[in-house]
Structures are given as structure tokens and as C-alpha cells.
Amino acid sequence: MAPHILLLLSLLSLIACTSSNPNTITLPLSPLFTKPQSSDPFHAFKLAASASLTRAHHLKHRNSSSLTTQVFPKSYGGYSIDLKFGTPPQTSSFVLDTGSSLVWFPCTSRYLCSHCLFPNINPSTISTFIPKNSSSSKLVGCRNPKCGYLFGNDVQSRCPQCKPASQNCTLTCPAYIIQYGLGSTAGFLLLENLNFPGKIVTDFLVGCSILSVRQPSGIAGFGRGKESLPSQMGLKRFSYCLISHRFDDSRENSDLILQIGSTGDAKTTGLSYTPFHKNPSGNNSAFGEYYYLNLRKVIVGGERVKIPLEFLESGSDGNGGTIVDSGSTFTFMERPVYNLVAQKFEKQMANYTRAKDVEAQSGLGPCFNLSGVTTASFPELTFQFKGGAKMTLPLPNYFSLVGDSKVVCLIIVTGGGTGPSRASGPAIILGNYQQQNFYVEFDLENERFGFRPKSCKRSA
């Protein structure tokens, strides 16, 4: 493996459960949103808002039966799960990400993470997967079809030094570099055993990253790509319930449920469903791994926001429309959409004093000063989808106290400037902050998205 390590070191400058049902796996799921140690009372919100905007920019500008596990609230804006790879199994922590597809972990004793000095995270103590300690770990050959999951179907392009007719080529799959909203990672691909209680997924394609920037934890890609965990396991459904970010970095967690066996077209009791929107240009599109939703209306205080259709519906090029992304913290709206929504809140809350100083310091808005207010009234925020399914958000999912003051701000972000009438990529990205305390189901077999309000804290 030394040649891979030398190659990746040269690339550093380029990147600055248990279940009674055999068809289900349940895993613990926890939040990952760091409360930074800072004297600035707005620092945490500025960091989350900035991270959400960076993530949105990344998502919008791309280059082309059931098992249960737990989901934990952790440090920098997402939710994590623990997975076991190798023989004997080694446990690694992964960020649950429906906006990307590769599953990768920090790997080898030489793993290096740059700019990873997050609170409660010391880069020197990041747990890494050690391939040499696993008897089932194998490098992926460049002719292996699974190498094509990342590098395309053209064998010659990924095996340039092999003769086209050679079936005995010993070259390995090329090293990868993947960009994320807040950082990047680089490594090489392995085939490894993914271990669940009572079930082992053999020859699972996983990334062995030895260099990362601002990515202290591995990522479990749950997108639509061939390399994603749902695709490789052939999942029929997966679902989660995200506990509140106020439990970040605590031992509280909720469940991620992986459904392996078919349930036909049966709907989960109590869920409202909306069909997924057909992905733009199929799986070959740069946006092909996203989960697009058919958002029809945004309603503020009972009044419909008149959003132009070009932002609500995605075209064949992937521009416009709405995606749901567990890897984004705050929901993103394209500037014209955000302005219309914000104006509705401003109009309906005109009796409260605007806190424009806090807006400037926090990166959020509109913000309102509630000092001296004994009883505050807030307009409801509802997303209505195709088929009539309505997601009415709990107040803490879209308004929050900021800092130590009695100022509340709308927890939705947008890009700077007025922007073009229609920018590239999805116009709305439904982040995990807005998904808190909802049971959410991705029904892949029937191509639909289901949800219902639920208190996700186990003791609730």
C-alpha cells in the first residue's frame, strides 16, 4: 500500500443493533453540531449558517427487509452512526449524508486530518480503520466493475497503462479525491465486509481515506449513486428520526432503520407521503444522486408565498426544485425564494422590533427583539408537497433564540446578493435542522418520501 500513500501525500497540496426482524437493521443516530468555545455569543449560529451556505454551494455546483442502528447528535452540524467493517470488525463513526454516495472512513495509521481542531475533537485521537488488521480487506482492481462506480464505465480511462485486451491487469483502482461543502478527502478504494448483527455484507465498496481537510469523521453516503450504502445493500427503505440539536455531543440518540426485504406498496401507519421527483437527466447528471421532492407551496401564517414555478420545479438540467439533505444543517433557499418567505414573516411580525444588529452579527434574519414581551406569537411555517402532504414545522425548527439576548431569528439561510433569476442546482435544500423531531422515511421501492411529527428522544 506504500505507493498509494506516497501518491496521496503528493495530493495533499491539492486539497487545502439489534433487531427481532431479520429484514431490518436498527442503528443509533446522534447529532453532530459543535457548540464552539468562543466569547462571541453568535459564533455557533454564524458557524452553522456559514457551514450550511458552503454545503449548499457544494450541492448546487456539482461536477458531473429492515436493520436498525442508532443515530447520535455530534459536533459540526450533522448526525452520526457507527458501522463495523472488517474481520474481525472495527467500529468507525460516520456522518449520515443523503446528499452524497461514497462510504469512507479515516484509514491507516498514517491518516492525516488538516484543520480538524473542532471542540471535543483532537486530530491525533481520531479513530482509524487499519486494513492490515482485517483478513477480509482487499484493494479494488481498476478492471473491477465497482471501480467504475466512481470512475465511470470506460475501463481504459481508469486503466490507462493496461492493454485493452488484457484481462490480467494488476493495476488498482485510481486514488480518489472528493470535495464536500466544508472540506475534502482523498484515499483509495477497498472491498471489505460490512458487519451487522446476524448479517454480513461482503465485498462492500468503501473508501480508505488517508488525507482529509475539515472532515474528522467518515461519511456514510446514503444518496442514489451505485456506491451508496442503500444501493450496495439493495435497501427497499430507510428511515430516521432526528433528535433535537440541543442534545449535540450528548449520549442521546435515536434510530436509523434499514429495510432490506420488500414490503410491497404498503405505507407506514401515520405517515404522509409525496412522490420523489424524477431525477434530472437520470443517474448520469451531476445532481443524479440527490433526492428531489415535489414542493408545491410554502405557507407562512396561513398565507401562501407566491414563489415562481421555475424555483419550485427542477428542469432536466437539475436547476430549481427541492432536495432533502441530512448533511445540510440549516435549510437553504435561493435568494429570490428566501426574500419572499422572509417578507411574509416581516409583515406578519411587524409589531415586533427588528434586531438588525443581530442579523448582521449572526448571518441570520429576519431577527426580532422580544425584550419586554410576555407572550410572543409566531406564524406557522408549512411546506406542502405534491399529493397534499403538509410538513408543518415545530417552532424550534425554524425560529431560535440567538446568543444570550432575547432575540429570535429565522433559521433559514440564503446566498449573498440578489443573484440571477435562476441559479444552478436545486433552489431549496431541506436541511436537518428543519427535520428535527420528524420521523422521515425514504421509500426507495415505491419512490416516495414519507414523514410525520414525532418526539425522537427515547425517553419522551
From TrEMBL:
GO molecular function: aspartic-type endopeptidase activity
Signal peptide start and end residues: 1-20
Active site: D97, D325
Alphabetical keyword list: Aspartyl protease, Glycoprotein, Hydrolase, Protease, Signal
Listed GO biological process terms: proteolysis
GO CC terms of this entry: extracellular region
Entries under PANTHER family matching the protein: OS07G0603500 PROTEIN-RELATED, PEPTIDASE A1 DOMAIN-CONTAINING PROTEIN
Name listed for the protein in its UniProt record: Probable aspartyl protease At4g16563
Organism whose genome encodes this protein: Abrus precatorius (Indian licorice)
Name of the gene this protein is made from: LOC113862845
